[in-house]
């Protein structure tokens, strides 16, 4: 599961990491990103387009789907390449969602305690995603999840698929469409690179969005 995350790293830094021209402006830091909002993403609008760092709607519903079709925010790696709903986007419309970390909730005797999960070195995480044009023409995305690994498994049984730096280029390559080839050339970050700590329950309210949400607390 990945239902909340933080992105405070700025476009110039992300563009350099992606080999893109440095943009003129940044964006407002966000410490409590929720589904159903615009989020930054690296993607190609079509197979002939150059890679761009743009905005994607966090909610995946292909334009061909009916009005009552689901609008998932996540897609499991175990079935994304074969599911009718996702397989077209997995083959042709893969994207990356930059995040400085994400939140999960650990059940305890006094309720659910939120934790912030990130790289131990605080480097940016590149979350694997898929996108599709929605009925309104906007690009909508879902973040891929996998079984939790390392310390992340202490908090939740699933985690976003965070790719290592060497996997960025093949993941975004529009000429790679075969799922077995993709599986063999794409790697997630090492489990021991991930850490977490408990944070304030203020993050439970989407309206709370400031840097203090990341500060460790004593449960």
From TrEMBL:
Pfam families per record: SRAP
Presence of keyword Nucleotidyltransferase: no
Gene Ontology BP term (one): protein-DNA covalent cross-linking repair
Matches recorded under SUPFAM superfamilies: BB1717-like
This protein's UniProt keywords: Covalent protein-DNA linkage, DNA damage, DNA-binding, Hydrolase, Lyase, Protease
Record-listed E.C. numbers: 3.4.-.-
Enzyme kind, highest EC tier: hydrolase
Any GO molecular function: lyase activity
InterPro entries to which the protein is assigned, alphabetical: SRAP, SRAP-like
Family recorded in the similarity comment: Belongs to the SOS response-associated peptidase family.
Protein name: Abasic site processing protein
Organism: Halomonas caseinilytica
